[in-house]
UniProtKB/TrEMBL annotation:
Species this protein is from: Microcaecilia unicolor
Underlying gene: LOC115479675
Entry binding sites for heme: 439
Keyword Oxidoreductase: yes
Cofactors named for this entry: heme
Principal location: endoplasmic reticulum
The name this protein goes by in its record: Cytochrome P450 2A13-like isoform X1
Record family assignment: Belongs to the cytochrome P450 family.
PROSITE patterns found in the cross-reference section: CYTOCHROME_P450 (PS00086)
Transmembrane segments: 6-23
Length: 494
């Protein structure tokens, strides 16, 4: 073999080897998992994650591993998405793939895969579609529901006036007002503010949210098979859920006994009519178990998130009295003291609108988002995410993304105002999540927050015995939910 032939064969061999290496590397890159810290057996990366302030700890990790990375929360791998671009790409651009719901056993121990929040597949699609349509039938998204909210705002104002400027914890005043709106839809009636059974139900909802957000609730979700056999505060979550479940089951039975198939009085009636229509279908998803689970989540989600947002809102105003003063000026100028605020007023009130948006952005109520899971093997940003993997598209990382908000860690209504003082939208304003699993009550919550918030400020000035500089607006608990510190406030008639 002459030298030329040998050289040619050598070069061909080198090129072949390089090609094989390139193909292997490409396949490896395509199929590799996202990066992340090395886990320990059983506990995973728990020792590396701040158990109170989990979202901030994970955002710090993203500085090292990038906007897509993996952590082991206990024995289970979770893919974390951090920042607006990564979350948007997953929840909006690839909505179908990232539209599965990951499990949270604190909820599912009572929901058992039914309802609209933690179900998957066809049961979720049919139940959600029915729920959205039925809520619209009962006024959600229409003027009818706003009139109910305005009426309830007046009840709230009257009850705050009865406190006669005493320093009070406002939590249950807010929760009664907010919850009465969803109660009028699902149960067909509102409750008096001194109704003891109603107050007990609201206490259960408050305890559930706090319990799930506590370290005990986290441990139950992570190590369910062990924790369900151990005593501890985590067991209180189930007992509170059972109180709600028993109440709803009682209401369902009452409606069954007086049901008119041609005239539904509330959401429960509408669901029962659907059950009756499909009673010959043995595989139907419309049955009493699914009804109870669906109403439970509507009751819970229609009460707790708006209530906690209002709690946080007025704590922030106590911290920033200059913001309250400017709000009073705009409310007096645009609405006055006699006109009942309506959601359409927000278009003429850019500062008020900006403050409400900034409150929701700043607090990041559900910082990690409710868990998602991918519905198929997914290639995402150069990484392989296996089917069924739990994914946490962190809403806090979107709402506090420095590429989207100039001073994300500060409360600043200017994030939603342009240089001329007009309201400015932001694509990164996603407190209700996005995509197929975004909160179906977003529209209702927006109206409630505006009408209740403005109605209170229209009628009252705020007072605290604690100086603004000493008021802490960081979360007291920051896990599943960001929960504010307890505080007292006086509502002084204007």
């Amino acid at each position: 073999m002459d030298a030329a032939v040998a050289q040619t064969l050598f070069l061909a061999g080198c090129l072949s080897s390089l090609l094989i290496l390139f193909i292997r590397k490409t396949m490896y890159q395509r199929d590799k998992l996202p990066p992340g810290p090395t886990p320990l057996p059983f506990i995973g990366n728990l020792l590396q994650i701040n158990t109170n302030g989990t979202a901030k700890g994970l955002i710090k990790m993203s500085e090292k591993y990038g906007p897509v990375f993996r952590v082991y929360i206990g024995p289970e791998m979770t893919v974390i998405l951090s920042g607006y671009e990564a979350v948007k790409e997953a929840l909006i651009d690839q909505a179908e793939v990232f539209g599965g719901r990951g499990n949270m056993e604190t909820f599912n121990q009572i929901l058992r895969g039914f309802g609209i929040a933690f179900s998957n597949g066809e049961i979720w699609k049919q139940t959600r579609q029915f729920s959205v349509m039925t809520l619209k039938d009962f006024g959600v998204g229409k003027r009818g529901i706003q009139e109910r909210i305005q009426e309830e705002a007046q009840f709230l104002v009257e009850n705050l006036r009865k406190t006669k400027e005493l320093s009070i914890d406002p939590n249950f005043f807010f929760s009664q007002a907010v919850s009465n709106v969803i109660c009028s839809i699902v149960f067909g009636n509102r409750f008096d503010y001194d109704d003891k059974e109603y107050l007990h139900l609201l206490q259960m909802i408050d305890e559930i949210f706090c319990g799930i957000s506590s370290i005990w609730g986290q441990l139950f979700d992570i190590f369910t098979s062990i924790m369900k056999h151990l005593p501890g505060p985590h067991n209180r979550i189930r007992r509170c859920f059972e109180v709600l479940e028993e109440y709803i089951a009682k209401k369902v039975k009452q409606n069954q006994e007086t049901l008119d198939l041609n005239s539904p009085r509330d959401f429960i009636d509408s669901f029962l009519i659907k059950v009756e229509q499909e009673k010959q279908n043995s595989s139907s998803y419309f049955h009493v178990k699914n009804l109870i689970a669906t109403v439970l989540i509507l009751f819970f989600a229609g009460t707790e998130p708006p209530t906690t947002t209002l709690r946080y809102a007025f704590l922030i105003l106590l911290k920033h009295p200059e913001v309250e003063e400017r709000l009073h000026q705009e409310i007096d100028h645009v609405i006055g003291r006699q006109h009942s605020p309506c959601h359409e007023d927000r278009n003429k009130m850019p500062y008020t609108n900006a403050v409400i948006h900034e409150i929701q952005r700043f607090i990041g109520l559900v910082p990690l988002n409710v868990p998602h899971k991918v519905t198929q093997d997914t290639h995402f940003r150069g990484y392989m995410i296996p089917k069924g993997t739990r994914v946490r598209p962190m809403l806090y990382s979107v709402l506090h993304d420095p590429s989207q908000f100039s001073h994300p860690e500060n409360f600043n209504p200017g994030h939603f105002l342009d240089e001329r003082g007009n309201f400015k939208k932001s694509d990164a304003f996603l407190p209700f999540s996005a995509g197929k699993r975004m909160c179906m009550g977003e529209g209702l919550a927006r109206v409630e927050l505006f009408v209740f918030f403005v109605s209170i400020l229209q009628n009252f000035s705020l007072k605290s015995n604690t100086p603004p500089k000493d008021i802490d607006i960081s979360p007291a608990v920051s896990n599943f939910g960001n929960i504010p510190h307890l505080y007292e406030i006086s509502f002084v008639p204007r």
